[in-house]
Amino acid sequence: MVAPRNLGNDGGRVRDEENAKEEDDSPTTKKSAGAKFDGRFPLTRWEFAVALGVFVFFSTGLFCIYSTMPAAEYGRIRLPRTISDLRMLKDQLATFAKDYPAQFIMGYCSTYIFMQTFMIPGTIFMSLLAGALFGVVRGLFLVVFNATAGASSCYFLSKLIGRPLVSWLWPEKLRLFQAEISKRREKLLNYMLFLRITPTLPNLFINLASPIVDIPFHVFFLATLLGLIPASYITVRAGLALGDLKSVKDLYDFKTLSVLFIIGSISILPTLLKRKRTYE
Fold it and tell me: Do residues 148 and 232 lie in contact, with contact meaning Cβ atoms separated by under 8 Å?
């Protein structure tokens, strides 16, 4: 006589196998840093070739745009690294921006998007420059447009080859980010707005990690477009008074950060109210 099978144990074993499979398929466990890379560079040859190809493509376009500028102006352009450098650059480019507005804006936009796409530090100086040369309204429009376009380019580049790199650089932060996103799927736009408005997470990490944790592009795009407006306004407005600005750190004092967190808290208020009604 055949002994009866223990259905309870079999069922538990099947559930364990399914859970293990789900964990293996989750974005944060694919190519985990410690288990997969062993200290080696995370990108494969194909992924590195793709990244290099995209970089060369963007660089070629940037060079073509800059080559249309007058030689005298082209030689003056340097990416500023300090407020002092920015003041000098603003004085040098003011006449060129007035005489050749279309060429200048094209060069400005391509530079900003290039820096944002490839995570090159210094976009905050570009935002200050927009305020100094174009004023608040036009400067804010330029900054938000370029920041959103550059973040979108970074999003798609990360979607293509970013998973191993982000898992290698920030494995724990990516795991926590995935957990927070999973809990807020129903009000994901509100949560992403909060992250964009407040300095809770670096924008660099948000741009790279968003496609990996399956944030839809339309949510990412709207949250970026709307969420960057408050901080961009502060930076662009500060560009009107470069002479009074001593350091980039002066832009975000306690008062400014408090205002950003208040605005960010308003964006997640619907989520908090819905959770309260659920508990009641």
Answer: no
